[in-house]
Design a protein that fits this description.
Blueprint: H1 2-13, H2 15-36, H3 48-70, H4 72-82, H5 92-106, H6 108-120, H7 122-128, H8 145-153, H9 167-201, H10 208-257, H11 261-266, H12 287-290, H13 295-307, H14 319-322, H15 334-341
Helix pairs in contact: 1-2, 2-6, 3-5, 3-6, 3-7, 4-5, 5-10, 6-9, 7-9, 10-15
Length: about 350
Amino acid sequence: MDKFRMLFQHFQSSSESVMNGICLLLAVVTVKLYSSFDFNCPCLARYNALYGLGLLLAPPLALFLCGLLANRQSVVMVEEWRRPAGHRRKDPGIIRYMCSSVLQRALAAPLVWILLALLDGKCFVCAFSNSVDPEKFLDFANMTPSQVQFFLAKVPCKEDELVRNSPARKAVSRYLRCLSQAIGWSVTLLLIIAAFLARCLRPCFDQTGFLQRRYWSNYVDLEQKLFDETCCEHARDFAHRCVLHFFASMQSELQARGLHRDNACRSPEPPAVPEPPEVLDSGSEKAHLRAISSREQVDHLLSTWYSRKPPLDLAASPGLCGGGLSHRAPTFALGTRLSQHTDV
């Protein structure tokens, strides 16, 4: 159980591990979907190519979009690309690195589907049966062109009465299946060689730029995640204080109207009223959250976070990000918690 907990915490803290797990899960689902799919070619000259190519390319497109939706970094990348510069300059290298990472993970499942379809050969036979050159096969010598096209359209349907025991159908089907498998294995070999060269040749070049882009792409993801968590924490604390303030005001109103007389007779001491935020210890853990104590301040904080991200310099003046939140506590101390988690 302890090992499982440690593994879960590792996946929870590492965004790359989570994305790799989702990528692997989509690839496994792709294999399962293809193995359970019932392939039925229409065996009509007009629709064979449309059905075969559609089945070869449409599911990979859907899987690619699912990979983009499941990858949280795709949203973070678009936000980083479209955000105003503010106090933090935008680095195109970080956006390119995040785009490359997102595309690599999103293309895994579509490539698995395409390779499975090519190695199986059914989609390829259905799509290109009408494109075969009849002169390569001697069995079509005594047929008219219209009969040849009609016969080739029936090649994927081996149970059809016209081509059930025809040697020409077997020859065309075997030819197209071999061509499909050759393309599939060639693509697989090229992908393996490309991955091998990328892995082996990377240490031969300067790693400074790669390490910097990787670090800051992870930083952008973690910063946004910590900001969302801190906003949720502030919303919970703010709601709690608003409810307590409501009960305290209602209690004062009841006492003013004399409706609280019975309880006052039972207990001579008035009930405790929640302590206002101003008297709280500014060094407490939630002091930076209690500093934002009105709707206008929250709206201004969120607007400032979007339009003017704080500079990546912990020694910079906090006034660069404050922008008019009047309160006794530091105005933008919310960023302090982020800097404690992501020390640069």
